[in-house]
Design brief:
CATH class of the largest domain: Alpha Beta
CATH topology of the largest domain: Double Stranded RNA Binding Domain
Oligomer: single chain
CATH superfamily of the largest domain: Shew3726-like
Number of helices: 7
Number of strands: 7
Order of helices and strands: HHHHEEEEEEHHHE
Length: about 170
């Protein structure tokens, strides 16, 4: 599940845990490598909320779990590996104005619909062609996968079909 706050040390530790370079994370999160380097080295202000969401979502989809600080127990924030429960196919296909793709969550198949409205809201514009919508989702796949995982985690039983809504995404996505 994606929340939006991580520390620079958590980011560096998460990368080390999964063996990613700053370049690999930048590519996965679709942000500049300098954004990662500056964040981890405290060289500038923290990344924008949208970039931080992308960074964290990319690391979470690679199997990292971020552990929040527990002040009452005297424990700082951390990271650990988690068991991945979401398997996905990046075979996005248009379905009218929407996109659909298959996933498997906890061993159960599900078909995910991403509406045109969600995609247009994320890019803050109207994408004219299905190919343009596919490109946007492919570039920001970790964010969409995080939303799928959140949606499916919050349901008692995995549905055979789901449609993502804005509430499935972390604050600051739109």
């Amino acid at each position: 599940m994606v929340t939006t706050s991580i520390t620079p040390k958590q980011c560096a530790a998460a990368r080390a845990l999964i063996g990613w370079s700053q370049d690999k994370l930048a590519e996965a999160a679709q942000v500049a490598r300098a954004t990662i380097a500056n964040f981890e080295n405290h060289a500038r202000l923290d990344p924008s909320q949208k970039n931080l969401i992308r960074i964290k979502a990319s690391l979470e989809q690679a199997g990292v779990q971020f552990i929040p600080e527990d002040v009452s127990a005297g424990l700082g924030p951390g990271v650990r590996l988690r068991q991945l429960q979401l398997e996905y196919s990046n075979q996005l296909r248009p379905d009218g104005w929407h996109l659909i793709f298959p996933v498997r969550f906890k061993g159960q198949d599900c078909l995910v619909t991403i509406t045109r409205e969600i995609i247009d809201d994320i890019v803050r514009g109207n994408l004219a062609t299905p190919a343009d919508r596919v490109k946007v989702v492919e570039r920001r796949l970790p964010e969409f996968l995080g939303a799928v995982e959140k949606h499916l985690s919050e349901t008692a039983q995995v549905s055979r079909e789901i449609t993502l809504t804005m509430s499935d995404f972390p604050p600051g996505t739109f």
